[in-house]
């Protein structure tokens, strides 16, 4: 069976070369019950002063939180991804439409950059999230704290 192609959960870029991409590469431990639904992603950050690739592991609750963050996002608000296990990414929306993006990997890098996003960027990122979920659906259920089993809907 062929592995799915990487999918961008976040893709923000401008004409000046500023870029922040969260590219989901696949399952962290496919076929291992406790790690199957954890997704491995690359965080790619580029600007005139930085060109970095950092690792990010996404749990299903991270995707749920990102969905909620996108729903609540607007001028003066900030959406965040990650953070409780290492790398964090914050996107702050300014009143004038500019975005401030901060990437903080405590052991490696802290970078902030600004970019102007397209007007429909939030709707685009909702579609990106849906594509990630379709590509790597939740296939493990927690039946009790610390007890897991395969979902009856799992595609083998």
**Helix/strand/pairing category:** alpha+beta
What's the tally of helices? Answer: 2
| Element string (H = helix, E = strand) | EEEEHEEEEHEE
Shape assignment: globular
The fraction of residues in strands falls at 35-45%
Helix content: 10-25%
Q: Which radius of gyration do the C-alpha atoms yield? A: 16 Å
| Largest sheet geometry | 4 strands, antiparallel
Strand order of the largest sheet: 1-2-3-4
Word description of this protein:
Helices cover 18% and strands 45% of the residues. It contains two helices and ten strands, in the order E-E-E-E-H-E-E-E-E-H-E-E. The chain has a four-stranded antiparallel sheet. A four-stranded antiparallel sheet has the order 5-6-7-8. A two-stranded antiparallel sheet has the order 9-10. Helix 1 packs antiparallel against helix 2. The relative contact order is 0.18.
Features:
156 residues, alpha+beta, four-stranded antiparallel β-sheet, 18% helix, globular
Task: Give a nutshell description of this structure.
It is built from two helices and ten strands. It is α+β, with helices and mostly antiparallel strands.
Topology (SSEs and partners):
Blueprint: E1 7-13, E2 19-27, E3 39-47, E4 50-58, H1 60-72, E5 78-82, E6 88-93, E7 98-105, E8 109-116, H2 121-135, E9 140-144, E10 147-150
Helix pairs in contact: 1-2
């Amino acid at each position: 069976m062929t592995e799915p192609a990487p999918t961008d959960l976040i893709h923000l870029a401008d004409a000046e070369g500023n870029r922040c991409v969260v590219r989901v590469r696949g399952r962290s431990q496919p076929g291992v019950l406790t790690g199957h639904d954890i997704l491995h992603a690359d965080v790619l950050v580029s600007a005139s002063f930085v060109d970095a690739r950092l690792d990010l592991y996404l749990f299903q609750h991270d995707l749920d939180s990102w969905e909620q963050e996108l729903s609540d996002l607007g001028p003066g608000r900030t959406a965040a991804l990650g953070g409780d296990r290492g790398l964090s990414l914050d996107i702050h929306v300014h009143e004038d439409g500019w975005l401030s993006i901060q990437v903080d990997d405590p052991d490696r890098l802290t970078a902030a950059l600004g970019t102007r996003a397209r007007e429909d960027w939030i709707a685009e990122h909702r579609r990106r999230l849906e594509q990630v979920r379709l590509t790597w659906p939740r296939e493990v259920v927690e039946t009790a704290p610390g007890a897991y089993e395969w979902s009856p809907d799992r595609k083998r």
